[in-house]
Q: What sequence folds into this?
């Protein structure tokens, strides 16, 4: 699955995850509706191995985590405090670093997690923390195109749309409205 050229998705897989639920013709579409698709999506981003097993319970956990991330991005962009349950979901997915001491001396490692999907969620959670609290957090925006529910990072102050497709759709609608108005006059 391509990231569609939405600014910020390559650097922030957490942003790409949120954008896997879209609106098309007023209908919500889940691009991660199937465990196999979720496995492929996570593997394409190097978050799990390509042969990892993802069952429906884990798939549901990924989709629930995505909705919590969406709520956090929405809160960040609108400068509101997020719902506590969504913040709790992010923090629960994070794994604290651990210290191991072996023949090579002490080193920092990610705390072990029960399975690959939990590890992927931990990586996505850490990535979301960077997105929400890092330098680029101020450039987080939601697409201004009617019906689009995607987020992106503004590459310049005038950018209003997540993709050229959304921008073209808005410009075409404006053009059509002007022509219809001129024809009615």
A:
């Amino acid at each position: 699955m391509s990231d569609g050229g939405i600014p910020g998705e390559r650097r922030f897989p957490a942003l790409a995850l949120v954008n896997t639920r879209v609106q098309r013709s007023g209908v919500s579409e889940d691009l991660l509706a199937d465990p196999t698709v979720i496995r492929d999506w996570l593997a394409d981003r190097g978050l799990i191995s390509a042969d990892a097993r993802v069952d429906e319970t884990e798939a549901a956990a990924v989709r629930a985590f995505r909705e919590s991330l969406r709520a956090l991005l929405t809160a960040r962009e609108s400068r509101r405090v997020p719902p506590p349950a969504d913040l709790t979901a992010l923090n629960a997915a994070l794994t604290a670093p651990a210290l191991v001491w072996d023949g090579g001396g002490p080193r920092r490692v990610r705390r072990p997690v029960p399975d690959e999907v939990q590890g992927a969620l931990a990586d996505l959670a850490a990535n979301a923390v960077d997105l929400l609290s890092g330098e680029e957090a101020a450039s987080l925006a939601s697409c201004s195109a009617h019906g689009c529910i995607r987020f992106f990072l503004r590459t310049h102050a005038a950018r209003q749309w997540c993709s050229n497709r959304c921008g073209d759709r808005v410009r075409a609608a404006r053009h059509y409205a002007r022509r219809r108005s001129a024809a009615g006059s």
The domain at 13-184 is CATH 1.10.3300.10 (Jann2411-like fold).
